[in-house]
């Protein structure tokens, strides 16, 4: 026997001698029986438990369905079945049970070492900021415990440790661990110094998703609870402030804050590491041909947009008209945009209230706010708001519009009592113009509930709509993908608005970055006339975020015609007189008022996805 072999065997014997320990196991949370497991060699916890002759009698499920509990109360946690038994202290009690679905344990077939070779840390079952509602685990059965206890050999990264664990989702990456507000561990850092620490997982905020949609319900619930003992006015004000402040700040602004704990070096390193892959991805998705098409399209239309929207007097006019645009909050339901039509009446999109309308009444527990002058992040008190009545003045699902009346006086967020003499800005009804066949357009709204934004664009002519949609889809290159997405938007009724379609001349189309939250925005032409109510787009969800191949607006002339017809049918003569007075001097509206109303249009077979 060689000296080297003798030394190896001796080392193995010494390690086994050092390894000897024992722990207890229960097969029911409520049952009193505890069985002692004697472990005399390195192995996984489940392998050690299986040495009990009673195991097969008590546990009838596969290893992948086994879940193991450790500890009680605030320290209650679950461990993976392949957790090193060397990391279980003497007389520790484990509870083992079965779940009907696979928990996600994966046996990594790694060598088991002594305790000093590992770092053991805890992951909270609840995610941290921006992650509370996201799925982190393959099976939520693990969330019956406060923590997931995770192990990692010293030297590996946090990301590697969680992937080896097997209970977390497969595509978990680019995350951070927050021990508290000021202590952050990147997923690329090693586990060496994490022993016995407790963390919450925070996923990166996905910018485009935030850009497209906002869902502040959770935050609103917390704010309502914290303000439950306040007066009605104070509670209402607090709720509005909170909703308005949903916007995040830019990375640059965050980095400039004195208490910023973001590791800028880590960010730069990650960007450098990802750049080659990012470059390959961009080259595969956006070919030279694609960029050339876009460039040609922009060359064709840039001159038109520049001519109208670079002239100071036109911009000044649009900014003045934009004062009538407001952010519409349907509390706990949706966010959108609207604008003052006349007096205290605002126009917005009907689909913002979908599922909460009974006849022409909003459900009693639904509150609607219109927020004006929300144009700057600071100071927060610059904006003012009105509560809307729960009865619609007019509501039409076909043309996707709703008219609501605001309370006569508004409020400011720092006021404890209702403000005096805060009035709604002037309406835009007198500025209504016809739907242009081509030319410039500009949308003013609150996309994703953000501050007021302006997007100069151009009308896509009827004969060019099909090509515009096709050009947008061409970025995906593969014919199968393009055909699949084409079928998807075709099923939404896009052919109805293409040349020859029965709705082709009854909407205006364009491309805009304003998606979710911008529904109900006014669309202006190059002369500053408002011609459309921005409604939606023909969307697809091929990527994680919803995209649109083309967006559209319903003509305000058509909406006005329907509105007047409905007022006549309801015999609301007083309001009709107010409308006629406001429309006086506008030749387009006067023509509608003097024309006999036709039968209502057939329902437009397109989806409202904004």
3D architecture notes:
About 30% of the residues lie in helices and about 20% in strands. By secondary structure, it is of the alpha+beta class. The protein has a domain at about 15-205. The strands form four sheets. A ten-stranded mixed beta sheet has the order 2-1-5-3-4-7-6-10-8-9, covered by helices on one side. It has a seven-stranded antiparallel beta sheet with strand order 17-16-11-12-13-19-18. A hairpin with an 8-residue loop joins strand 1 (about 20-25) and strand 2. Helix 6 packs antiparallel against helix 7 (about 230-245) and helix 14 (about 555-570) packs parallel to helix 16. The termini are far apart.
Which short descriptors sum up this protein?
610 residues; alpha+beta; seven-stranded antiparallel sheet; 16 helices; disordered C terminus
Poorly predicted runs are 1-16, 207-255, 598-609
Using the CA coordinates, give the radius of gyration.
31 Å
Portion in beta strands: 15-25%
Average pLDDT metric: 78
Quaternary arrangement of the chains shown? single chain
Distance between the termini: 78 Å
Main β-sheet, spatial strand arrangement: 2-1-5-3-4-7-6-10-8-9
Give the overall shape, derived from the CA principal axes.
elongated
Q: Compute the number of helices.
A: 16
- Give the % helix: 25-40%
What is the structural class? Answer: alpha+beta
């Amino acid at each position: 026997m060689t000296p080297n072999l003798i030394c190896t065997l001796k080392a193995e014997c010494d390690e086994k001698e050092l390894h000897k320990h024992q722990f207890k196991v229960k097969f029911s949370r409520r049952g009193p029986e505890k069985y002692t497991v004697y472990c005399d060699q390195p192995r996984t916890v489940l392998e050690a438990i299986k040495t009990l002759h009673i195991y097969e009698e008590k546990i009838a499920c596969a290893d992948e369905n086994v879940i193991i509990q450790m500890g009680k109360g605030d320290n209650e946690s679950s461990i993976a079945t392949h957790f090193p038994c060397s990391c279980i202290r003497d007389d520790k009690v484990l509870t083992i049970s079965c779940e009907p679905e696979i928990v996600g344990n994966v046996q990594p077939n790694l060598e088991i070492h002594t305790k000093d070779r590992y770092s053991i840390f805890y992951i909270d079952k609840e995610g941290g900021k921006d992650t509370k509602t996201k799925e982190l685990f393959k099976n939520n059965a693990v969330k019956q415990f406060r923590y997931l206890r995770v192990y990692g050999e010293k030297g590996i990264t946090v990301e590697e440790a969680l992937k080896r664990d097997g209970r977390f989702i497969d595509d978990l990456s680019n995350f951070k661990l927050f021990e508290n507000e000021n202590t952050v561990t990147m997923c690329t850092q090693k586990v060496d110094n994490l022993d016995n620490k407790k963390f919450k997982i925070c996923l990166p905020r996905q910018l485009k998703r935030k850009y497209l949609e906002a869902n502040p319900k959770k935050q609103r619930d917390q704010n309502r609870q914290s303000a439950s003992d306040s007066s009605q006015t104070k509670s209402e004000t607090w709720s509005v402030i909170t909703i308005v402040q949903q916007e995040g700040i830019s990375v640059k602004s965050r980095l400039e804050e004195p208490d910023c704990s973001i590791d800028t070096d880590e960010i730069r390193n990650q960007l450098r590491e990802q750049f080659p892959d990012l470059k390959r991805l961009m080259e595969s998705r956006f070919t030279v041909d694609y960029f050339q098409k876009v460039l040609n399209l922009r060359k064709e239309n840039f001159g038109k947009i520049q001519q109208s929207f670079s002239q100071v007097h036109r911009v000044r006019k649009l900014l003045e008209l934009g004062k009538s645009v407001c952010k519409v909050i349907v509390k706990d339901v949706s966010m959108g945009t609207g604008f003052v039509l006349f007096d205290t009446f605002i126009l917005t999109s009907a689909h913002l209230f979908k599922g909460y309308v009974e006849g022409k009444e909003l459900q009693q527990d639904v509150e609607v706010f219109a927020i004006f002058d929300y144009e700057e992040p600071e100071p927060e008190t610059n904006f003012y708001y009105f509560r809307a009545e729960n009865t619609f003045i007019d509501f039409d699902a076909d043309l996707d519009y709703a008219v609501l009346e605001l309370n006569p006086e508004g409020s400011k967020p720092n006021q404890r009592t209702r403000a005096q003499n805060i009035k709604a800005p002037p309406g835009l009804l007198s500025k209504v113009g016809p739907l242009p066949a081509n030319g410039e357009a500009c949308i003013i709204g609150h996309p994703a509930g953000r501050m007021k934004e302006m997007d100069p664009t151009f009308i896509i002519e009827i004969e060019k709509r099909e090509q515009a949609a096709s050009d947008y889809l061409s970025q995906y290159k593969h014919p199968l993908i393009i055909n699949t997405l084409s079928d998807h938007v075709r099923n939404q009724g896009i052919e109805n608005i293409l040349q020859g379609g029965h709705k082709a001349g009854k909407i205006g189309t364009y491309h805009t970055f304003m998606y979710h939250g911008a529904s109900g925005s006014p669309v202006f032409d190059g002369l500053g006339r408002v011609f459309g109510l921005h409604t939606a787009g023909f969307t697809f969800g091929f990527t994680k975020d919803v995209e649109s191949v083309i967006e559209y607006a319903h003509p305000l002339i058509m909406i006005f015609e329907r509105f007047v017809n409905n007022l006549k049918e309801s015999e609301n003569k007083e309001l009709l007189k107010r409308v006629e007075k406001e429309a006086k001097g506008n030749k387009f509206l006067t023509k509608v008022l003097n024309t006999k109303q036709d039968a209502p249009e057939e329902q437009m077979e397109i989806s409202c996805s904004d």
